[in-house]
Write a structure and sequence with these properties.
single chain; alpha/beta; 2 domains; 5-stranded parallel β-sheet; two-stranded parallel ribbon; 19 helices; 8% strand
C-alpha cells in the first residue's frame, strides 16, 4: 500500500483539494483510494455516500440517506486530517484545538479509526492532506514521526506545494485578517515578522519531513505550476501518478480571500471595532466585488520597493536550498519578479475602494461612520 502525505503549505489550494476528496470519498474508495475519516461523523458521511449509490436500497432508507447528506457537517468531517493535525499539536503544546474542530476524539482513537478503514477497505493508496502539518517541523518534528507510524508498513510519498513568498505573504496576511487577527500592515512590520517562521522560511517546512522520510519520493510543487495544471486536484493526481476516477472534476476555489484593496480596511476594523462589527465589515469586504469595481490584486503594491528587496535577499538562501532539493536551476523561475513593484500603491487602491462604498448599503451606523472616517482621512 502507498501512503501519500500532503503536508502543506497554507494558501495553495489545500481547502479545495480537501473538499474534492470529501465530496468524492465513495468514488475514490471504489477506485482503491482512501481519504480516511478520523471520527464518527466522517465515517457516517462515507457510509452515506457508499449506500446511497446502491441500486437496491428501499425508498425509506434512500430518503433517510438523502436527508443525512443535506445536513451541514462539521469541519471534523470535511477536513479530517486538519482535525488530526490540530489535535496532535494540541497534545504536544498542552493546548486545545481551535473551536471549529471541537469535540475531537483523542489521537489514539483517531489512529484506530484510520486503521479500521484500512483493514475493511484494503485500498492500494491512502491519502492524508493537511496544511496544518506544515507547522510540525520547526518545533514538533516528533509529530512527523507519529504521522509516519500511522502507516508503518506503507510505501510513503510526500507532496508539498509552495508559493513565491511575496504572493504567499499577501494571501496569508489576508487570511489572518479574515479570521479577525489584530496585526500590523505588511509594509509596517508584519512582513518582516513572518521571515523567521514557516510562512517565509520554507526550508523549515520541508526539511524535517525529508529527514523523517529519507526514502520517500518528494513531490515539491510550485503553486504556479499547480494553477497551470488546472488546480489542486488535477496537479495532485498528475504529480503522484494516481488515476482520477471518471466523472469527477475539481471544485474551483474554496477559500475566499480579502481583495488587496480591502485588506487595510479590514485590518483597521479588526483593531477599531467590536468583534461583531469587525466581522460584519469583513463580510461586506469579502462580497463587495459583486457590486464594486476593484483593482486586480496583481496590480496592487503591498510592500514597497525597499521591503521587496529586503525580502528577496532574505529568501535567496532558502530558494537555493529548494532548487537543490528539486534539482532545478530555480525552483521559482520568476524570482526576479519578487523585487518588481506593482503599478498601484496600496494607499491608492484603498482610496479607490472607499470612494465606491455606498454607506447606505452597510448594516448599521457604526460601520457607516467607520467608512466615512476612513474616507475622510484618505482624502485629507
Amino acid at each position: 500500500m502507498k501512503a501519500i502525505i500532503h503536508f502543506g503549505h497554507h494558501k495553495i489550494g489545500s481547502t479545495a483539494l480537501q473538499a474534492f476528496f470529501f465530496r468524492n470519498q465513495a468514488a475514490l474508495i471504489r477506485a482503491g483510494i482512501l481519504y480516511p475519516a478520523v471520527e464518527s461523523e466522517g465515517l457516517a458521511h462515507i457510509l452515506s455516500q457508499l449506500l446511497d449509490q446502491h441500486p437496491h436500497l428501499a425508498d425509506d432508507v434512500r430518503d433517510g440517506l438523502n436527508k443525512a447528506q443535506e445536513m451541514p457537517l462539521s469541519m471534523n468531517a470535511r477536513e479530517p486530517h486538519n482535525a488530526l493535525a490540530f489535535q496532535m499539536l494540541a497534545q504536544a503544546t498542552k493546548g486545545t484545538p481551535p473551536p471549529w474542530h471541537a469535540d475531537l476524539p483523542n489521537i489514539r482513537q483517531m489512529g484506530q479509526t484510520i486503521a479500521l478503514q484500512l483493514h475493511a477497505l484494503h485500498p492500494h493508496t491512502v491519502v492524508l492532506c493537511s496544511e496544518v502539518m506544515s507547522n510540525f517541523g520547526p518545533n514538533h518534528p516528533d509529530l512527523i514521526d507519529r504521522v509516519r507510524n500511522i502507516f508503518p508498513n506503507a510505501d510513503h510519498e510526500l507532496y508539498c506545494v509552495l508559493r513565491r513568498p511575496d504572493d504567499y505573504l499577501i494571501s496569508w496576511h489576508a487570511q489572518r485578517l479574515r479570521f479577525g487577527n489584530k496585526v500590523r500592515p505588511l509594509s509596517g512590520g508584519a512582513a518582516l515578522n513572518y521571515t523567521n517562521g514557516i510562512h517565509f522560511d520554507y526550508r523549515k517546512v520541508v526539511e524535517p519531513w525529508v529527514k523523517a522520510f529519507p526514502d520517500a519520493p518528494l513531490r515539491l510543487r510550485n503553486y504556479a505550476d499547480v494553477l497551470k495544471a488546472g488546480g489542486s486536484a488535477e496537479d495532485f493526481f498528475d504529480a503522484t501518478g494516481l488515476q482520477m476516477p471518471g466523472g469527477m472534476g475539481a471544485l474551483g476555489r474554496a477559500n475566499q480571500s480579502l481583495p488587496c484593496a480591502a485588506m487595510e480596511i479590514a485590518r483597521r476594523a479588526n483593531h477599531d471595532l467590536s468583534p461583531e462589527n469587525a466581522e460584519a465589515m469583513r463580510h461586506f469586504l469579502l462580497t463587495c466585488h459583486t457590486h464594486i469595481s476593484l483593482p486586480a490584486n496583481r496590480d496592487v503594491e503591498m510592500f514597497g520597493a525597499d521591503l521587496r528587496t529586503a525580502l528577496a535577499e532574505r529568501f535567496a538562501p532558502i530558494h537555493d536550498w529548494l532548487s537543490v532539493q528539486t534539482n532545478q536551476p530555480a525552483f521559482f523561475p520568476d524570482m526576479d519578479d519578487m523585487i518588481k513593484t506593482r503599478p498601484l500603491p496600496e494607499e491608492e487602491a484603498v482610496a479607490r475602494l472607499l470612494k465606491q462604498i455606498d454607506t447606505a448599503t452597510l448594516p448599521n451606523e457604526t460601520l457607516r461612520d467607520f467608512i466615512r472616517t476612513l474616507a475622510h482621512h484618505c482624502a485629507a
